[in-house]
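Researcher: Structure prediction, please.
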Amino acid sequence: MREGVVIVVQRADRYLIIRRASAVIAPGAWCFVGGGIEPGETQEQAVVREFREEVGGEVRPLARVWEYTRPDGSLRLYWWRADLVGDKLECNPAEIAELRWLTPGEILTLPNLLDGNRAFLATLR
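Model: Predicted structure follows.
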């Protein structure tokens, strides 16, 4: 089973959401920032690294808030709340096509929203 982290960054009533680039797994899908945990890496380290790699920003991990296992059992994701440090964000075009700050309701209307993200948003109600 592969393991990864998902980074949930919130500002007021909006969350940072991304659309994946065309050359990565699930191209064009909308989701929160995240990625795989590397060997020997803690979840907190993966949160910081993945956020930096994908959107060029710095975060401070706060707490693991949810866990999702894909129905086929091939992937487990650990969802982390994190604080954005500073305002600098710049999409890595190899991984991210665009980013937006949206409310949960707006996120749910996006086409190609990954299932785990939809399930996480249901926990916010």
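Model: Residues 43-55 form the longest helix (13 residues).
Researcher: Thanks, that helps.
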